[in-house]
Amino acid sequence: MSKLIDELLDKMELYSGAVVQIASDITGFAYQYYLEEKRPLDINQILDGIIESIGVQGTLILPAYNWDFCKGIPFDYNTTPCKTGAMSAVALKRDDFKRTHHPIYSYAVHGKDAELLYHFNNISSFGNDSVLGYLHKKNAYNIIIGIDYNKGFTFAHYVEEQVGVKYRYQKNFTAQYTDEFGNSEERTYQMYVRDLDLDVISGTRTQLLGRRFEELGLAKTAYVADKIPLHMVHLGDAYPIIEDDIVNNRSRKICEYKGQNDD
């Protein structure tokens, strides 16, 4: 294990038995690793370090999202790649990780609750019965590596769906679905999508939630090699702050939409 990986694991402040979700862009870390070690980064070393740190009672969850199903492109459980970073892609290739079944918002999962999550059969992407609902109930430890909240905080969409917002609505998507056993059929899944008539701009303000979490002492930011950011917050603690912004502040710390500032 390298000094840089040790520093990353140390600053993540992992603990035994934790339910951990990690969203990441590992590019900057991999570059720094190459500068220091003169060899390419093996992401498996990071995954193994996390798994060791959270122990046999812990659960590790990585987003493995792919939005092609929304375009009518078939989903294949075994071969459809994720579009959420190299760490998730590496996890999907490992035998000790399982992939959950939603064709748009699937996850690579490992540990104590991996089997439970594998058997989830949620239709809605952000529903109470989804992996995000599980993360809420477990007060999961959410870690964002190498990016800010704008790019790595899907949990805000879960809260939007639970509370209900005027600028999103539930939409059905139907395409061919091939399961892990090779069985294919047409299936329909849902996503709480932006209302385009309201000119919704998402992913531009979520860092404001992160600042609010930190003001309240609920979140922490650290830096690896003084440059690679880590943002850390427990999602159960974050939920009421997001809910309050939706209900009392018209989601101004989440997105922009037409009519948001009307009296």
Give a topology summary.
Layout: H1 3-11, E1 19-24, H2 27-37, H3 43-54, E2 59-63, E3 75-76, H4 86-92, E4 98-99, E5 107-111, H5 114-118, H6 131-137, E6 141-145, H7 149-152, H8 155-163, E7 168-178, E8 184-194, E9 201-202, H9 207-215, E10 219-224, E11 228-234, H10 235-249, E12 255-256
Helix pairs in contact: 1-3, 8-10
Description of the molecule:
- This protein is an alpha/beta fold.
- The chain has one domain.
- Helix content is 33%, strand content 24%.
- The protein contains ten helices and twelve strands.
- The strands form three sheets. It has a seven-stranded mixed β-sheet, with helices on both faces.
- Strand 4 and strand 5 form a beta hairpin.
- The longest helix is centred in the last third of the chain and has 15 residues.
- The model has no long low-confidence stretch (mean pLDDT 97).
Binned strand content: 15-25%
Overall mean pLDDT? 97
Give the number of domains: 1
Task: Report the radius of gyration as a whole number of Å.
Answer: 18 Å
Residue stretches low in confidence (pLDDT < 50, at least 5 long) are none
Keywords for this entry:
24% strand; 7-stranded mixed sheet; alpha/beta; 263 residues
